[in-house]
UniProtKB/TrEMBL annotation, chains A, B:
Protein name: Acid phosphatase
Family, as annotated: Belongs to the APS1/VSP family.
Gene3D superfamilies linked to this entry: HAD superfamily/HAD-like
Keyword annotations from UniProtKB, A to Z: Glycoprotein, Signal
GO molecular function, one term: acid phosphatase activity
CDD domains recorded: HAD_VSP
Claim: Signal is one of the keywords in the record: yes
NCBIfam families: plant-AP
Top-level taxon: Eukaryota
Length: 248, 248
């Protein structure tokens, strides 16, 4: 049989004394299952989903409000930064080198909104979320802001490619600038004609247009697999964590 | 600022009393960083790596010998199973439907080998590993065995596509059968001519050959991104966890 732990090894993994310190094994098992669900999402193993499973609501809340989310965001930014620096050091003609950034949960965080809506436990409410977006108060994700500035400073063209609608252009520009994001080369919002497309299709089309203009998409940062997959994919993609919602 | 936790919120996340029960914050931070590293690998965010980072050796050992690895494996198998059943229920002509399985760390586990070699902390030693393979004693991953049988029973053609060399055909067949894997349609091992190719290139070529024969690759299960990416990709891929080694 496989040498992964049965119940007896599992007990051996826990700090002692067992009884007082820890949640019941059932709770521990639920926690393991929710961590598995979250990691499966990051590995793109899940079927499309519309809300966080009820039994994982507490896990997701703890994750996004605790140190693990920040740690995960920071590690992905560091990997992206190392890759960007290696490219910049190559010395070749880099005028066409481009990096694509998604906006929500990539450059800006909507955690204050999701804190009021069960961190993904509630079904997504477009109107409510639009009201939040229109406040223009989404904070920067610090590790993404550092990466954004570095990528700019290294000479990459920076394209912000968001599923937000064109009607939110003004508030999005203001929100980004207020949070320290400046000097992007292009901010692409979703036109009315793109509204019925999946994010994967819409974003692939926009990346293809960039390539047709001669840009080489070398990096792409996004919290959804639909930011990264499809066609005209980036040479390398960076999947930021997001267990709160799924966009096809 | 982003509403993810600073040090004060972090302390609030921990069960109390803090001092006696838990490792120092430094150890907790190291644990968070190693979990981030592991999850980043699952999300394909890492640059190629040749060994587990020394500071994460204990984390990886605990993960693969504890309940989290088993839980992650089981969840991925359940997702794959649900997808396979949905496809089988479609009722269309399914004679060409195929599922590709990798072997090592997908159908069979080499944990007994890696237990003797630091769970990925040591650099990979081809000769030592070959000696282990030639014993033919790799146990089945239970959730993968269940998925394999179900996929077979649902009528998919099953192609086992492994980076093992053709010289290991006999021992691999024996090992698989001894562990309960039977009736695959094809076992594809790496020929001498394929030895210098990356796994991504070799496996893409073999998938392309399947397609050229008329098969529709609908599912692909593998523990390496190089099992899943490249060209002639499966309609849906299932990334099994593996923080012990990376194959390009």
């Amino acid at each position: 049989m496989l040498a992964v732990a049965g119940a007896e090894e599992y007990a051996a993994e826990l700090p002692r004394p067992l009884v007082i310190q820890l949640p019941s094994l059932t709770e521990a098992e639920a926690e393991a299952r929710c961590a598995s669900w979250r990691v499966a999402g990051e590995a793109n193993n899940l079927a499309p989903w519309s809300a966080v499973p009820a039994e994982c609501a507490a896990h997701v809340r703890r994750y996004v409000t605790g140190p693990a989310y920040r740690s995960d965001l920071e590690l992905v930014a560091r990997e992206a930064s190392a890759y960007a620096r290696a490219l910049a050091a190559s010395g070749a003609d880099r005028a066409a080198d481009a990096w694509v950034f998604d906006v929500d949960e990539t450059l800006l965080s909507n955690l204050p909104y999701y804190a009021d809506h069960g961190y993904g436990l509630e079904l997504f409410d477009h109107r409510e979320f639009d009201r939040w977006v229109e406040k223009g108060e989404a904070p920067a994700i610090p590790s993404s802001l550092r990466l954004y500035k570095e990528v700019r400073d290294l000479g990459f063209k920076t394209f912000l490619l968001t599923g937000r609608s064109e009607g939110h252009q003004g508030v999005t520009v203001d929100n980004l600038k207020k949070q320290g994001f400046h000097d992007w080369d292009r901010l692409i919002l979703r036109a009315a004609a793109d509204r019925t497309k999946t994010a994967t299709a819409y974003k692939s089309e926009k990346r293809k247009e960039m390539e047709a203009e001669g840009y080489k998409i070398l990096g792409n940062s996004g919290d959804q697999w639909s930011d990264l997959l499809g066609y005209s994919m980036s040479a390398r993609s960076f999947k930021l964590p997001n267990p709160m919602y799924y966009i096809p």
